[in-house]
Write a structure and sequence with these properties.
Elements: H1 19-33, H2 43-60, H3 67-83, H4 90-102, H5 108-124, H6 130-147, H7 153-162, H8 167-179, H9 184-198, E1 218-223, H10 228-237, E2 246-251, H11 256-262, E3 269-271, H12 280-284, E4 292-296, E5 302-304, H13 311-317
Parallel strand pairs: 1-2, 2-3
Antiparallel strand pairs: 1-4, 4-5
Helix pairs in contact: 1-2, 2-3, 3-4, 3-5, 4-5, 5-6, 6-7, 7-8, 8-9
Length: about 325
């Protein structure tokens, strides 16, 4: 099973130096990022070979602008190698990760990525139950928030955990992010998730123009032409009995005309808020991602905004 958090693959980078030195460096980088690891036959060996090649690269070209990326690649690949079974590399992995995350000359984003990949995989070794997972992953998220307060990874991870909790607990975790010195991106995400949770118990017609339950429960799915998973969810919902359940598909794309062309045959009543200049409605119902699923009771009150959690059970209760 691959490590959580980051692929064992390099980002793109640029080179510097004389023409000959650049050519030599480029060839070495291409060897590192190319098919050389295909000589290894299993995932653990591939990851370890990549890590070794990365170390050779930054030792051979210490002045290269790619040194940071090579060091990051070594750390991530060592994590993957250990996860895949190279237990003998564990001490090297720990030293490499510790040195990378403590190096203030490296941008915080990169250090947070390596730290998060390491910590989440360490946490996974301690998980024996769903309760363990919740506790361990929350602890990792909060640790990243403390270590890298100006980076989004820890806050985003805590928000992911929040949406797996009961609404009251999830709302408190979201507020924790809003009260922290988080970057703007996770703060915006937190505000939208708070809006979503605050819908529970509310009449949807107060927030979504044109909605009427008509005395039937409603399933509302959010889709985007760029999200195959959301289109697959729509197909899964298609067999719902329209005489018993209202099925509504809400497009979150900024260009609804293009979205409609790209995604034909979707089931239920389709709404395109952007098309009617009502895009603010997406904000009012916390709709910022696809796929997502809301459930509404026959009286028109929102009962669930985390419909993808335990989806099979919820669809089973609807006869799917």
């Amino acid at each position: 099973m691959p490590a959580l958090g980051q692929e064992c693959a390099p980002d793109s980078a640029v080179s510097g130096g004389t023409a000959d030195a650049m050519a030599e460096e480029t060839r070495a980088w291409e060897k590192l990022t190319g098919s050389g690891a295909a000589l290894a036959t299993d995932a653990a060996s591939v990851a370890l070979l990549r890590a070794d090649q990365a170390r050779v690269f930054y030792n051979r070209f210490p002045a290269s602008e790619r040194v940071r990326e090579a060091r990051k690649l070594e750390a991530i690949c060592l994590i993957n190698a250990v996860v895949e079974g190279k237990a003998g590399e564990e001490e090297r992995m720990r030293r490499t990760v510790a040195a990378f995350r403590a190096d203030g000359a490296i941008p915080g984003w990169d250090r947070a990525v390596v730290a998060g990949t390491y910590e989440f995989n360490e946490a996974r070794t301690r998980i024996k139950s769903a309760e363990d997972m919740a506790r361990e992953f929350e602890a990792v998220a909060r640790g990243l928030m403390r270590e890298f307060p100006d980076q989004p990874q820890g806050y985003t991870s805590l928000l992911t955990q929040a949406m797996m909790r009961e609404p009251g607990e999830g709302r408190r975790m979201i507020q924790e992010v809003l009260d922290a010195p988080a970057p703007e991106e996770p703060r915006l995400r937190a505000r939208r998730l708070a809006t979503r949770l605050d819908l529970i118990g509310e009449p949807l017609m107060n927030h979504l123009d044109g909605f009427s339950a008509g005395g039937r429960p409603s399933v509302i799915y959010f889709w985007s032409a760029a999200s195959p998973d959301s289109l697959a969810l729509a197909a899964r919902l298609a067999p719902l009995d329209a005489a018993k359940v209202n099925l509504i598909g809400i497009c979150i794309d900024a260009d609804p005309v293009a979205a409609a062309r790209a995604a034909t045959g979707l089931p239920g009543r389709l709404l395109y808020p952007a098309e009617t200049k009502q895009g603010d409605q997406l904000d009012r119902i916390g709709a910022d991602e696809a796929p997502a699923l809301y459930l509404v009771d026959a009286a028109g009150n929102v009962t669930d905004v985390r419909g993808l959690t335990n989806l099979d059970e919820k669809l089973g209760s609807l006869g799917l």
